[in-house]
User: What shape does this take?
Amino acid sequence: VFSSEMEDNTGWTGDIGTGAGQWDFPTAFPGGNSTSTGPSAAGSGTSFAEFEASGSGTNIASMVTPMIDLSAASSEAEMSFLMHAYGSEIGTLNVGVGTSPTGPFTNVFSWTGQYQTSEADAWANIGVDLTAYLGQQIHVEFSYAATGPSFYGDMAIDLVQVETCVSCATPTALTASNVTTSSADISWTNASGLSNVEWGVAGYTQGTGTTISPSGT
Assistant: This one.
């Protein structure tokens, strides 16, 4: 239901810019990386979001997703993102969920300190359970501050995704025609795109019948 390759900041809000203590989206790879901190390559695609630590002290920068619609979600939901945390002044990343792009945000994940030990280390794939937010429209905040006054605290985020199961709308106008002892023509109006049809002897258990792909839309 949501996916961002972090190639640019389209739809994202918060402390986003090119100055110290802000999240930037480097396009001239390797972009805003300082020496001995940050990743040597994007985790996915060609760019990523990176906190520029140079001279920022312990200023906290917020980066907030566009609205993520879980109103039709069912079963469970998970957010995943790639994280690169290399540098001697890596601070604390807090990930929070709220119903407004300006908060308040409830914290659902935190990480403090280095995760990687070199620029070339693989990105970490982080998973966060969002099942508690089924049925809501949410925003996710990435809030981060480095620990020192220098430039060794460049935290980076890439490929933010939210996955869930979405219930299909019920078909309408179901009709049967040309009915014989061994066949029938069935038609309906599909409310959610193409569908498959499963059939069997009356009383069969769903999943054990015969599945066919109907013609039409």
Q: What stands out?
A: Residues 43 and 123 are 6 Å apart (CA to CA). The chain has a mean pLDDT of 89. The longest strand covers residues 73-85.
